[in-house]
Amino acid sequence: MARKRGREGRFVSTVEGAEFFKVYLPQFSSHQIRIPPDFTKNFRRALNEKVILKNKDGKTWYVEVKETPEGVFLKDGWPRFVDYHGLKVGEFLVFRYNGSYSFLVQIFGTNGCKKEKFGPQNIATHVKSEVESDNDDSSSVDRSKLFKRFEEEEEDNNNEFPKRPSFVSPPSRRKMLKIPEEVMNNENVHLEAEVNLRNAEGKEWPVNIYTMLNGPTFLGRGLCAFQRDNNVGPKDCCKFIFGNQTTIDVKILRH
After folding, report:
1. Half-sphere exposure of 4 (CA within 13 A, CB side)
2. How far lies 215's CA from each of 80, 124, 129, 218, in Å?
3. Burial of 61 (0-12, 13-18, 19+ CB in 10 A)
4. Yes or no: is domain 121-253 CATH 2.40.330.10?
5. Are 79 and 86 in contact (CB under 8 A)?
6. What share of the chain is helix, strand, coil (3-state, %, to 5)?
7. Where exactly are the structural domains of the chain?
8. 45-79: per-residue pLDDT in tens?
9. Could you tell me the sign of the dihedral formed by the alpha carbons of 188, 244, 219, 151, in that order?
10. Are domains 3-116 and 121-253 of this chain identical in fold?
11. Any idea what DSSP says for residue 9?
12. Spelled out in words, what is the top-level CATH class assigned to the domain 3-116?
């Protein structure tokens, strides 16, 4: 088995195709998952760095690897992987190392068959309830007036944002916010499963993107943290401006 010495004297495996499996048990695996000790003998990495998890559809998640006295774990970023795939107790995950600290993860259901559909269809009921509640809260908001306010403000600021696909919304009182179809249908909008919301100061917050099967797309987990940390009030509104696959700029208009 060929190995080379990496930073800080750690060994980095050069063997692609190495695999390990885990059974998903929420009480142990929802926030972190342990890499088997025998696997880490061949796969070593400097602490507090990241690996890439990729599913069969090619979507990627960056997950931190941390070593503790109990072992080596996939931690920060792992819960987003769990949420997107709607993992359930007893499901079986196979991790295949593809080199360059990248793993292909295959998921098998409790029926023994490989899962073919991921993401929002696994949480469709939750999304529907969140959206219905949010629609009730914001039904009285005149979106055209919000756009007009932003247009006037941007003219005063000498168009600080170039014109890109965007939409305006009052703050979500739930955990989900629907992205309008006209935005998602724009040829310049292609979102990863996780994006960053970036405020005017350049600070970023990771947010999950959920797309229901043959249905709408939502900003999901992480949205509430963005609103809270930026003190977005119930009478404020946000303009979400799309620039690339991984970053959405957000301009907040205070009431």
Report:
1. 6
2. 21, 10, 15, 10
3. buried
4. yes
5. no
6. 25, 35, 40
7. 3-116, 121-253
8. 444 478 889 988 888 888 888 888 888 899 888 98
9. negative
10. yes
11. G
12. mainly beta
